[in-house]
Amino acid sequence: MGKNNLKAWLYLLPAILFLGAFMVYPLIDVLIYSAEEGYNSASQTYFGVGLYNYSYVLHDPYFLQAVKNTFILVIITVPLSTGFALLISLALNSIKWLRNLFQTIYFLPYVTNTLAVGLVFMILFKKNAYTDGLVNLMLRLFGAGPVDFIDGPYAAKMFVLCFYTIWVVLPFKILILTSALASVKQDYYNAARIDATPKWRIFTRITLPMISPMLFYLVITGFIGAFKAYSDAVALFGTDLNAAGMNTIVGYVYDMLYGDSGGFPSYASAAALILFAIVLTITCINLIISKKHVHY
Amino acid sequence: MKVILQNLTKRFPNRNRKIHTEVVAVNDFSFEIPDGKLIGLLGPSGCGKSTTLNLISGLEKPTSGKIFFGEDDVTNLPPERRGVGLVFQNYALYPHLTALQNIMFPLGNLKGDQKLSKEEMVEKAFEAAKLVQIDGLMERKPGEMSGGQQQRVAIARALVKRPRILLLDEPLSNLDARLRLQTREEIKRIQRETGITTVFVTHDQEEAMSISDLIVVMKEGVIQQIGAPQEVYDEPKNLFVAKFLGTPPINVFSGEIRGNRLWIGGEAILSTRPLPDQKVKITIRPEGFLPKEDGALSLDLIGIEVMGRDTTVVSKHPDCENVEIRSIISSETRIDTARSNVRFEIKPHKTFVYDPVTEERIDFLKEEDHG
Lengths: 296, 371
Hints:
The complex is a heterodimer.
Chain A: H1 2-35, E1 36-37, E2 48-49, H2 52-59, H3 61-94, H4 99-107, H5 114-125, H6 134-141, H7 154-182, H8 186-194, H9 199-227, H10 231-237, H11 241-244, H12 249-258, H13 265-293
Antiparallel strand pairs in A: 1-2
Helix pairs in contact in A: 1-13, 2-13, 3-7, 3-9, 3-12, 5-10, 7-9, 9-13, 12-13
Chain B: E1 3-13, E2 22-33, E3 38-42, H1 49-57, E4 64-69, E5 72-73, E6 84-87, H2 99-104, H3 118-131, H4 147-159, E7 165-169, H5 177-194, E8 197-202, H6 205-211, E9 214-219, E10 222-227, H7 229-234, H8 239-244, E11 251-258, E12 261-264, E13 267-271, E14 278-284, E15 289-291, E16 297-307, E17 310-316, E18 325-330, E19 341-346, E20 351-354, E21 361-362
Parallel strand pairs in B: 3-8, 3-9, 6-7, 7-8
Antiparallel strand pairs in B: 1-2, 1-4, 4-5, 9-10, 11-12, 11-14, 12-13, 14-20, 15-19, 16-17, 16-19, 17-18, 20-21
């Protein structure tokens, strides 16, 4: 028994060392940093221990703006992207002709570089001295005035960010949902057909419950992914997100560490832990809801 | 409800698209299923029996031919308008619904003046559940039930909307041996109590023989023989049917007709009515052997298996296609196992003779032996 245990630990050692050095230690370190008041990274000294860092972050208008942005992003993109992905997967599942082609097309954004796509979006939406951008040209066809989506009003910028985020996360969700739909056995549909079940009832009573585990998986990972959004905003609005008013929580953490206003690991740690608490709460709520509604 | 299948043919394109031939799953299938009977579609895997069932249910459309339910031509009706109940091989119970919800599911689809209140649905579901004796398990989900219980729920779900025809696809193949025996009696009972015309598909001849009013033996999409189980067993029309029915399987010998006698090897086992000399396949049912000192057929004895009231004599013969010849004799008969061979007299009514090429039956019995 003892010998076997030793062996087991030996096998686990590489993973433990790796995780310990790169996950557990940094996590503990973040906790410590967040409690050290007035930490100076140059001299590595601090004045005392307390919750001042949290209080500072929570009163920082940039942080509050970042929280607001992140929440809007999460609330808009997670349901919309999941819904769109479900609709597109259902459509893909019901066509036979050119199905592989469409599947490939819908999957393409997944293998494209985020920053490159962001640049393309920026060019599409940006209005500058020389051109209003492609989107504005099209808007003009409908008689709407040119809007600067990149440097203009907050709603326009938020719209572009959400639009972009949805576009980026769709492929993965479509991939998961098409395979989930394909794994529902044909027998269930045949049985339902024999019993003259209307299409809508088949969808709500058979298809949805059958793919509900995958759907909830996507919602949970979608929430977590959207809360961690950062690169999308950078790709669209550049690195000075605070100035653009489009910062996210992760962006705020990054800026506190390395940005122009950076050099404050304690504030960054406090912000990161606040994000952690938010994500944890939301995920727990998700899991509680899913227990009630997800079958199996 | 009587079901008439008229020249039903179903062709599938070959799955390998490079081969442009078609697979004929069901070939010119004509058969009238009498009202209120239990019909067994029997055949080896891939013989088209499930396709036939799917054609009746409407899940598949025939390439040609017609299907009538009573007087109605249902050939072009989609499955939902045919009013059939189908029990799937793997039951296809909705795993997220309880037994009650599963059984009620078809009732929830009723529209217009047929629409039922929740109470009526529950009542009807319990009625169907009582019939299959699972009314005590209505709150369980399929995952919490045994195979036999799931099977009953599936039958109840098929029965609850009072189908015109009940179809069962390999209903017993997922059950263990004991449950299978029990469930097949149940199916027979349920069919008798409801009087619904029932068609079931199986590859297990024992299953088909034991509960069907009529069996349809199929091979490669073509009907081989239709008849009451005993009738098909006693008078198999061709070599395939003879080989397919019966446990242990029938013993097949290469022999010949010469001088109005049946010959196996150098031994004349039976005399025949006047027939031209020819090579034939001689098949003898296991119960067609009568041990006798001066019997006509001599077999090399391998051993005997005593199983309660019967004794199986295991032997071999160079002209026999079977690896072992199994003959079932009364356990009172003593066989001397020390000897290397055993002699049998052959019962003419348990012996069938077939043309080795066409595999069609040759009637060899003399006038006085008939009847």
